[in-house]
Amino acid sequence: MSSSHDIGQTKSRTAPLEMTEEQFRSLGHDLVDRIASFLGSLRGRAVTPAESADKVRATLDAARTLPEQGEKANVLLENTAGLLFEHSLLNGHPGFYGYITSSAAPIGMLAELLAAAVNANVGAWKLSPMATEIEAQTIRWIAQFIGYPADCGGLLLSGGNMANLTCFLAARAAKASWDVRKQGVASGPRMLAYASTETHTWLQKAADLTGLGTEAIRWIGVDKRQRMDLDALQAQYKRDLEEGYWPFLVVGTAGTVSTGAVDPLPDLAAFCQERNLWFHVDGAYGAFAAGIKEAPPDLMGLTAADSLAVDPHKWLYAPLEAGCALVRDPAALRNAFSYHPPYYSFDAEATNYYDLGPQNSRGFRALKIWLALQQAGAGAYREMIGEDVSLARHLYDLAVEHPELEAFTHNLSITTLRYVPAELGASVGSEQTEASLNRLNQLLLTHLENSGEAFCSNALIEGKVALRFCIVNFRTSTADIEAVPPLVARLGRQAHAELNCQ
What's the CA gap between 34 and 194, in Å, rounded? Predict the structure, then answer.
């Protein structure tokens, strides 16, 4: 039992985490001012401080023990803002071209604060009536934006891995000829999924987590454009049928990680329709380009997919985390995930997202996307995405013209290239020279990352190490792109000199 002292404290309780209205207002105003100043200073900052892990841990004082006594909130917020602003990779910087992480829209930042204030659990309608309806509307708007049927099913998840996994599970439940959710995958023939060798590693995780095992994936080779080889797919499918396997899924990619290539989606859709296979498109990156005039024609094939994964935190410029699973038949999600234990007493007529995906408790991810879509509008989004594509094309053209650069690929908003010293130009293609160029460009990548002027990633194209520049950044300008070739050449000469001295 509680003591009388404890009961007395409870009657007039003021929790250490509580703030008065004025305290919260003062702290909030101060923090917003700091964030605004940080955003205004992005262009003048290094893209990354390029610090060692040991230095970052020392700055944090990572080894300290949990404090027993509390500290003042204003001091904590001020110190933490400094830690993050001064010791982070800034993917909102106009010189950030690494991976496929976009600059975050400022309205999305404010939306995160607003969503946290309500703290809706968007797992059940009763727990989050307005947030649930905002998510449902956001799903419809995303589908409309890319040309997917607006009456599809869908939900928001943490990112591409979870969105693709969710669609994978919907496909498994829909295409197994037995009750795979109850009896498991071992109760029927070996289920197989088909994907190109350029497919993201989410597929391996999905095959592993769903009990199929990674040997259930049939990796199909690609053509010179890094697109799935249809002839190879047909031949592999035929062999598998003859050997008694159960093909159920073909994965097409709308924008591969390395080069932004788009698989022949219309042909894959036809292949699946003829054979009663589930057609899934991993459009986490590229699907949002479907509505722009520069879109590859093959992107139109995503409208025929049974399911589609997209990431608003990529080309809709939403703050992390924001992935989205879309499924043509809304019932397929419920058939893959719904359970109704006796302790659930929620209205079945409303949308309860715990029925449609792997999570029960769910954060309010939709708000940052919903607000940004309204602030800009679909037309402005198409314009921004189109500008990113044009800038990547401009970089490719500049690399073609530069005497020390070799341009490899341009797809969507990804361009790949490498540095080739003049003295090695005549011997490009020889085994010795290619090995030297791989070492050189790998070192050059490190120099670029450490320079603070630009940040890119790497790609391996037919055994050649390339520098990969991905533009999903509404802050990047033509001037920023035109600064890249001379920077690469300057740091390339430096890296070449270092290797020659070894």
Answer: 49
Whether the model clears a pTM of 0.85, i.e. scores above it, the answer is yes
Please confirm whether the linkage preceding 321 is cis (ω < 30° from 0).
yes
Among residues 363, 388, 406, the one where a domain terminates is 363
Q: What whole-number distance in Å separates Cα of residue 48 and Cα of residue 452?
A: 5
Domain housing 269:
120-363
| 141-158 b/e (C-beta count within 10 Å ≥ 16 → b) | bbbebbebeeebbbbbbb
Distance CA 133, CA 207 (A): 32
**In this structure, what CATH number is given to the domain that contains residue 438?**
3.90.1150.170
Environment class of 374 (CB within 10 Å of its CB; exposed 0-12, middle 13-18, buried 19+): exposed
Do 286 and 358 have their domain in common? yes
**pLDDT tens, 277-328?**
999 999 999 999 998 988 999 999 999 999 999 999 999 999 999 999 999 9
The vertex-166 CA angle with 335 and 469, nearest 5°, equals 160
Residues 412 and 459 in one domain: yes
Whether 201 and 346 map to the same domain: the answer is yes
Q: Residues 6 or more apart from 105 whose CB is under 8 A from it?
A: 317, 318, 319, 368, 372, 375, 474
Contact between residue 278 and residue 248 where contact means Cβ atoms under 8 Å apart: yes
Q: Phi then psi for 458, rounded to 5 degrees?
A: -115, 160
